[in-house]
Design goal:
Belongs to the glycosyl hydrolase 38 family. This protein has 21 helices and 58 strands. By secondary structure, it is of the alpha+beta class. The strands form 12 sheets. A 9-stranded antiparallel sheet has the order 36-37-38-39-48-45-44-41-42, covered by helices on one side. Strands 3-2-5-10-7-8 form a 6-stranded antiparallel sheet. It binds zinc ion.
Length: about 1100
């Protein structure tokens, strides 16, 4: 340049010398309010943008001819079955129902001539319920959700030939959230809802007008949601007003729409393709599509299977249209359903998984509850989940994904780590109704010190509508900005399924455009997976980023009623878990005994076990086991559990019979007690009613295994139990350790003769039943609110009678009326002591329950002082406050326990054991076991009817220890009385009898040998889903139950073990221990082989013995 520069600046000739007229300052709120006129459905609708979106429509039988087949009895037939029936003519305007019924529509569609050349044609179907479009050949192609949610299907190009084309719509008579009667979706479903088909037509869409609609929406949001003192907000408002003025000036013509879009571009940039994400400026928000499908909730499992097909077929289609979309989906069970019932959709998904656009995540069988399932169940959620993902897609998941579950057990980080996962995502704690959880991204640390990186998306939802506000909140609600500014934005319709929509993707493109143009909105990017997000985070940690830590459970300060609601379901879960442990243990022994496969055709029942486990894991879904589903779901789960128990009893009987036992002992067979727990037991047990037998027998087993029962015909020692009425309505039950006084039906004294200690404070009443009023703020089945405690009402027992008075066991029956319709009968029993085995007072209650919004608990005031109580959790103990010092302490006014809860001082304590309960509280020195609730939504009949619950009071010397752990296991797993053919009892070593006691841990009573099972991929066990391993192996799970690093001797008696490996929960080898194999003397002085293992405090350690 140069040469033409002029040193004298001329006065601008073009700047007007005089004012053209007055120009006013825009009154901000008026120009802001005006924007609504352009896109709302009010009085200016016809003058606005909305009518321009549709260029033409065709409906009526000339173009969309409809006929229907309505299958009977609320059945859900397959495509083949449905289309084999006769269809009868129908039309728009008809009603279809009732709730939960299915209707198959044959659609004969012809595109009118004048629409053939239109740019974009859609078929629009809306009956305010859900549907699935099938091709004429029977492939599902597109899901529909009525009420305008997702009602359009882009017509294939092949339809533009002027000829008639046929396809089908499978209509499901439920909305996305089931069939609630009105606006309150958690009310029990209405059985007689009918749905009007109000739209079935072909539409030609003006894509430019549609694009302008989204331009205007997002720029409008910027004008409203950017800070009022930012130029970006003002500029957005100016752009929107300019767009409206331009549209009006051009009379809404296509030309005017084009000009409007140009104006929008000033603010958005080019947002018409996925290339908007190509810029290399740093994006701190990773948008990831997700579709939360509750496996059951306000609809039954059968509907979920269809929701999966509807939702995921849409995602496959959307990924094709929006290449930036990455969609992740959890729950192996849902993939398995798709594979079983919708193979062609499964193939579509599989292809997308391979491309990396459809991403399996979570690693678990379902998105399960984590408070209630037992430790082994949590492991099996991953074992079954990860194995499914690996077998079908060749990959395991790295991220545990549980956005919607009601609180997170303290051992999850460890269980994730041993199941191949290093990260965890949730957001549910944003629902806390007392304390605000302080972190977004942090290290979450388990009882054993294992950690995972945890992220809680700051938009505080897993069903984001991908609005401007969601993107903004990803930074304004981010609580870990001191450490890291990145976050995930999890978007897509959910709970009832759905997933991302094209609208979400259009909005996000514009948000990205706005970020690039203004820099005020945090920049979002798509095209990455959740795993990519975590990979980057882990990388930063590797490079020195110090994330804050959170130790222990992520207690959810809401939904505390879910430890108790739907008692029967919870009881079934506990029973099934215990049954499965027994079956796997005995079936394992049956397949490794000496003459296995020589004399018998017995095989490890892998398929049946898999079916049982998959069903139990399914029922642990986060709305099923917690009790927050509708009645239909519990009808289903009752059936599922019935099947589990039926199979289980058969498997148990098969395994026992392979081991030479008869599970229904005959009069002449020798009676044995079989102990499947890995420790010694001495118990008085009730014998089967066979004429020749007395009522009780004594069983003493040293270690696991079997022992002949000694029938107790008469007092066998000085240790006897006794009972007497000492004063009117005051009874004394006594054995050599305990003296219990029951006055007017409640325990007024419990004296430990061994410890010289009274447990019940003077004037207090233990085993006192309490009724509370139970009306939470909203979520009935889910919540019990803190104020229920003020409504405490003591129930008065009406009658106490001695029901058993033998020297071996004494019992009192106590009857208590709750109301005209409800009552409780509790039997308090005390057995004679056996040796130095600590005694417990057993309580067995039968409850008839027909209450409304009441909560029944049983209370134990005890003379113990401690600011913390202990509760059994999966593979360990969680300690929680017994006081209300802070709001964090008070929030835990109702907590979850497993088989026991304990309050102890250094010298003495008491454990309350149970056989099927999970809700508990300790306030000061009052321990409270939660028994039953009576919510009326979403199941109007939750928990009504007959219940049985067993619990026990176990006083003990010293703090909580192995007596509590073992007695609670024993209480849940009574000795099995079996017959045994003595001729086979005399088999040489490592035939049955010694085999039964072979597997145990010696020398560390805090170590529990929990599961014993065969290796998943052993050649004689494997079902072939993953490569087989040569030979036989046994997998043993050992954990420290009390919190102390220990060395124990893992013994296999005299079994021929060739190799020993420490393995992870997925049974991958971690460390070979074979070199350490040695021999020690057991407690009985017998030489046993095994290996010393060291287990960290609260570690869950798995070992594989190669045979
Ligand atoms: Zn959910």
């Amino acid at each position: 340049m140069g040469g033409e520069s002029n040193r004298i600046m001329p006065i601008s000739k073009s700047y007007p010398t005089t004012a053209a007229g007055p120009v006013g300052k825009q009154i901000h709120h008026i120009y802001a309010d005006r924007l609504r006129q352009f896109t709302d459905g009010g009085q200016y609708y016809e003058q606005g943008l909305l009518p321009k979106l549709t260029e033409a429509r065709a409906h009526g039988s000339d173009w969309v001819k409809l006929s229907v087949y309505s299958p009977p009895n609320l059945s859900r037939p397959t495509f083949k079955d449905a289309t084999s029936h006769k269809f009868k003519s129908t039309h728009v305007g008809e009603f279809f129902g009732p709730s939960w019924s299915t209707h198959w529509f044959k659609v004969q569609l012809t595109i009118p001539k004048d629409m053939l050349e239109k740019e974009h044609l859609e078929f629009v179907w809306d009956a305010n319920n859900e549907g699935l479009i099938w091709t004429e050949k029977g492939d599902p192609v597109h899901g529909l959700t009525g009420g305008g949610e997702r009602t359009e299907w882009i017509l294939p190009k092949t339809f533009r030939d002027g000829k008639e084309h046929v396809f089908y719509v499978e209509m499901a008579c439920n909305g996305m959230f089931g069939n609630a009667p009105g606006g309150d979706s958690i009310q029990p479903p209405k059985p007689d809802k009918y749905f009007q088909l109000h739209t079935a037509e072909v539409r030609a869409v003006n894509l430019e007008a549609r694009a302008l609609y989204f331009d205007f929406w997002e720029i409008g949001d910027a004008s409203r949601e950017f800070p009022g003192d930012s130029w970006e907000a003002h500029s957005a408002q100016q752009v929107c007003n300019k767009i409206m003025d331009t549209f009006i000036a051009g009379d809404g013509s296509n030309k005017a729409i084009g000009e409007c879009r140009k104006i929008a571009k000033e603010y958005l940039g080019d947002v018409d393709t996925h290339k908007v994400y190509d810029g290399d400026q740093e994006a701190i928000i990773t948008g990831i599509g997700y579709c939360h499908i509750d496996t059951c909730w306000l609809w039954p499992f059968a509907e979920t299977k269809r929701k999966v097909a509807r939702s995921w077929s849409n995602q496959c289609d959307l990924i094709d249209r929006y290449p930036e979309l990455r969609f992740c989906c959890s729950q192996a069970q849902q993939y398995k359903w798709l594979e079983q019932y919708y193979p062609s959709t499964f193939d579509r998904v599989k292809k997308k998984v391979k491309e990396g656009t459809f991403q399996p995540i979570g690693g678990s069988w379902v998105e399960h509850d984590t408070n209630l399932p037992g430790g082994e169940s949590l492991i099996r959620q991953f074992l079954y989940g990860q194995r499914y993902f690996e077998s079908r897609f060749g990959q395991r998941c790295k991220t545990f994904w549980l956005p919607d579950t009601f609180g997170y057990s303290t051992q999850l980080p460890q269980i994730c780590r041993i199941s191949g996962m290093t990260r965890f995502l949730t957001q549910k704690l944003s629902w806390n109704n007392i304390n605000n959880f302080p972190h977004t991204t942090f290290n979450w640390v388990a009882l054993d010190n294992s950690q995972v990186v945890c992220h809680m998306p700051p938009a505080e939802t897993y069903t984001a509508e991908a609005n401007f506000g969601d993107v903004k909140r990803s930074i304004t609600q981010h609580k870990s900005l001191d450490q890291d500014k990145t976050s995930l934005l999890v978007f897509g319709k959910g709970d009832g399924g759905g997933g991302p929509t094209w609208q979400h993707l259009e909005k996000l493109r514009r948000c990205r455009g706005i970020s690039d143009k203004t820099s005020l909105l945090p920049r979002v990017k798509l095209g990455d997976s959740a795993d990519d997000f975590f990979d980057r985070l882990e990388k930063r940690v590797e490079n020195g980023l110090d994330l804050v830590t959170w130790y222990g459970e992520l207690y959810f300060e809401l939904h505390r009623g879910t430890y108790t609601t739907q008692a029967n379901n919870k009881r079934n879960n506990r029973k099934a878990e215990i049954l499965l442990r027994d079956i796997e243990y005995l079936a394992t022994l049956a397949t490794i005994k000496k003459d296995y496969s020589e004399k018998s055709s017995y095989k490890y029942p892998k398929k049946d076990l898999d079916d049982m486990w998959e069903n139990v894991l399914l029922c642990q879904f986060h709305d099923c086991l917690p009790g927050s589903s509708i009645e239909m779901c519990y009808d289903d789960s009752d059936e599922i559990y019935a099947k589990v128990f039926k199979t289980g009893e058969q498997l148990l009987s098969d395994a026992l019979s392979e081991l030479g036992f008869d599970d229904e002992p005959k009069a002449d067979s020798s009676l044995y007690a079989l102990n499947t727990m890995p420790w010694s037991r001495s118990e008085i047990i009730r014998l089967p009613s066979i004429a020749s037998l007395p009522s009780y027998g004594l069983a003493h087993t040293s270690g696991p295994g079997m022992t002949q029962i000694r029938p107790l015909a008469s007092p066998f020692s000085a240790a006897v139990a006794s009972i007497k009425e000492v004063r009117p309505n005051v009874f004394e039950l006594r054995n050599s350790q305990l003296k219990v006084e029951v006055s007017n039906g409640v325990i007024t004294s419990l004296y430990d003769l061994w410890a010289y200690r009274e447990l019940i404070p003077k004037g207090k009443k233990a085993n006192q039943l309490i009724l509370y009023d139970d009306k939470p703020l909203y979520w009935q089945a889910w919540d019990v609110e803190v104020y229920h405690l003020a409504s405490r009402t003591e129930l008065s027992p009406s009658k106490t009678t001695i029901s058993e008075d033998s020297v071996h066991r004494v019992s009192l029956d106590i009857e208590t009326k709750i109301s005209d319709k409800s009552w409780i009968k509790t039997t308090i029993s005390l057995s004679a002591t056996v040796g130095n085995t600590p005694s417990s007072i057993e309580l067995d209650s039968e409850i008839e329950w027909h209450e409304t919004m009441k909560f029944l608990k049983v209370e134990f005031p005890v003379d113990i002082v401690n600011t913390e109580a202990s509760y059994e959790t999966q593979f360990g103990i969680v300690r929680r406050p017994t006081h209300y010092n802070t709001t964090w302490d008070m929030a835990k006014f109702e907590v979850c326990c497993h088989k026991w809860a304990d309050l102890s001082e250094h010298t003495y304590g008491v454990s309350i054991l149970n056989d099927s309960k999970y809700g508990f509280a300790v306030a000061g020195n009052v321990m409270r076991l939660s028994l039953l609730r009576a919510p009326k939504a979403p199941d109007a009949h939750a928990d009504m009817g007959r219940h049985r619950v067993r619990y026990a009071i176990l006083p003990h010397k010293g703090g909580v220890g192995e007596d509590t752990v073992r007695t609670a296991f024993n209480f849940n797993n009574p000795l099995k009385i079996v017959g045994h053919d003595s001729s086979t009892a005399e088999v040489e070593r490592y035939g049955t009898p010694s085999l039964l006691s072979a597997l145990r841990v010696i020398g560390a009573p805090n170590l529990v040998l929990d599961s014993v099972k065969r290796g998943e991929d052993d050649e004689d066990v494997s079902r072939g889903e993953l490569p087989k391993n040569k030979g036989r192996s046994v997998v043993l799970r050992v954990y420290d139950a009390l919190g102390g690093k220990s060395k124990g001797f893992l013994s296999w008696g005299g079994l021929g073990v060739k190799s020993v490996w420490k393995v992870n929960a997925l049974e991958d080898g971690v460390e070979e221990l074979s070199a350490g194999v040695t021999e020690v003397e057991d407690e009985g002085g017998e030489k046993v082989r095994g290996v010393w293992v060291e287990v960290r405090a609260f570690e869950v350690a798995s070992f594989r013995l190669g045979l």
